[in-house]
Amino acid sequence: MSTTIKLTTSPGEVVKGYLAGKTRKFYHPFRYALVMVTLHTILTVSTGVYDDQVHRMTDDPSSWNAVAAEGMTEDQLERNREFQEEIKGYLSLFTLIGIPIGAIGLWFLFRDKKLYFGEHLVSASYYIGHASLLSVPFTIIAIFVQYNPMWNLISSALIYIGYGTVMLKWAYDVKWVRALASSIALLIISALALTILSMVVGVGYALVVGVSPQG
């Protein structure tokens, strides 16, 4: 609990403290990420929020990707739904994969800090773990208020950018402008990498079930 509070009020202290050897004072970064990501995923899936979002993304004409869906046959739409159902059990894994991706991004963005890759992994783990926790209230709202998936995407991006800015500011001792720019760049890098990964998985799934992937 103390780690959660500190990550909210003073994330830089947690990152620096853990790297300084205060491993008993602060919860293990990857375990923290695993717990929080799993918690958020269970909430999203068990309450039906995930299924509702997928339905709106594939079937709802007002959805942000309805144009892509219009070019697909009914069979292809059904295959897409099956694919979304398949990956539902791996949502936590997809989020956790963002940790090494984020660490690579941090290493690139803060090369001047001369930190080891493992140190960036600590920052990325706490960052993704706590951002997942901060996303919980929005998931709870989505249980009662059905809104367009685009708003879910925007709220998630704002959480990651906002919290990322605060963490990077204090964890890497940089100015607010650089922290904000780096947070945005980190989100873009991670999003692109995960999109490519999703495409690869999608192509693999399409080959296995014997259909051509549609974008």
Kindly summarize this structure in a few lines.
The chain is mainly alpha-helical. It has helices at residues 2-9, 11-19, 29-46, 49-58, 66-70, 74-87, 91-109, 117-144, 149-171, 176-209.
Helix content: over 70%
The domain tally reads: 1
Major beta sheet summary: none
Shape, per Cα inertia axes: globular
Beta-strand content? under 5%
**Treating each run of at least 4 consecutive H or I residues as one helix, how many helices?**
10
User: What's the mean pLDDT score?
Assistant: 85
Question: For the CA atoms, what is the radius of gyration?
Answer: 18 Å
Number of strands: 0
SSE order, one letter for each helix or strand: HHHHHHHHHH
* Span between termini: 43 Å
Spans of at least 5 consecutive residues whose pLDDT stays below 50 are none
Helix-strand category: mainly alpha
Write up what this structure looks like.
This protein is mainly α. The protein has one domain (2-209). Helices cover 78% and strands 0% of the residues. The protein has ten helices and no strands. Helix 2 crosses helix 9. The chain is globular.
Keywords summarizing the entry:
mainly alpha, 10 helices, single chain, 0% strand, 215 residues, 78% helix
SSE topology sketch:
Layout lengths: L1 H8 L1 H9 L9 H18 L2 H10 L7 H5 L3 H14 L3 H19 L7 H28 L4 H23 L4 H34 L6
Helix pairs in contact: 1-2, 2-8, 2-9, 3-7, 3-8, 4-6, 7-8, 7-10, 8-9, 9-10
